[in-house]
Structure formats: C-alpha cells, structure tokens
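Note to self: keep these together.
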Amino acid sequence: MSGIRSVTAPDGAATGVPTGRSRVRQPGNREVAPGRLALVQSFVNSLNVEFGPDEFASLGGFTRWLAEYGPPGAGRGVTGADRERAVELREALRALLRENNGGDPDPAARAVVERIAAQCPLVLGFDEAGLPGLRPAREGAGGLFGEVLGIVVEAAGEGTWQRLKSCHDHRCEWAFYDRARNRTGRWCSMAVCGTRSKMQVYRQGLKTAGASGPQGGGRRAG
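Structure:
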C-alpha cells in the first residue's frame, strides 16, 4: 500500500506528497494532477523553492526519490551526472510550467528538454492487457527521465499539460494543477500566494502614486 510523506508546502503548512498512486491535498486544497501527470508534478516539486528541501541536492536524496517514485530498479546505479541531469531537467520543466501560466517562451528551457529527451528514447512495448504503448528504452535514471518526458507529450495531446502550471509568485513556483474551467488559475494557493502578490501590487501602486503626487515647497502663483 502506498504511503504519504509530510513536507512543508508553499503555504507553510505540512502537506502530504503522493507516493505511488495516492492522491492527497496540495496547497490551497488543490488535488494533484490527474493520472500519470502526477509524476511530472512530483518531479518538479522535488524542490520546494520557498521553504526547501531540495530532494535532488545530494546523490543520496535523488536516489531515494527515484526508489520511491520511479519504476522498479530506477534507483540502482545512479551517478552524479544523473543527478545533475535531473536538476537540469526539473528546472527546464519548471520554466515550461511558467509558460503555461502566462510566462514568456523560454527557448533555453525547451532546448534542454529536447537534448535530454534525445538521450532517453522511448520504444514500443505492450502492457499486461496486450495494448501497445511507449516505454523507456533504458533503465535507471535515464528511464525515469524518458518516462517523465513521455508523459509530458501524452498530456499535451490530452489537453492536461497546459493546466499544469508554476505558481505565479516567483518566491514559490510550486507546480499545481489548474482545474478552473477556463484555466485562469495563477497561484497554487489564492489565500497565501495570491494574497501576498496582490498586496505587493497594491503597495507598489501606493509608492508610484506618492512619487507622482504634488511636491511640497513650491512657489504659489500670484
């Protein structure tokens, strides 16, 4: 039976992280991304930008993450180069999730994804029911990277990839799944990230108004 680990979420509270097929609450009481897209979400959220930790900060941490989230045997034979590629791919995917939330296109991030995808090919395989599908050609970390990128392509075709976004608050950038009908969600938690972002805009407006207001000490026309 799959379990749930507790980590610090972007709203500062302890929240569950899905292990296996579990579905638990995310910041703002959101549900995790549907189906296999939850693996991509967990991959990006292996770093909590605002509070930590970074599960890929060490080779041991990355190996543990692979053992928990990856296919059987994914954590065996992992190298430092694998860990570095994992960080590079994670941050490239985060940049693409910023695009999904209205950010500017990031050609450098797209190039990273394409380069790593070329190193982690997918091949035709059959599941237990005899249905064909694509699966990683390699095992270990490379297989996990291939699986993650295959899910991205699959989700883009289904229309769910565009709903996986990086929180619009640059201090947070938690990957969340936007279930709004018109895909207007901007923050992982409206109560926390949304509120403080709006307060920042409000304060900036006050400063701008004060700077452009009447200046004291001038001479009166007479």
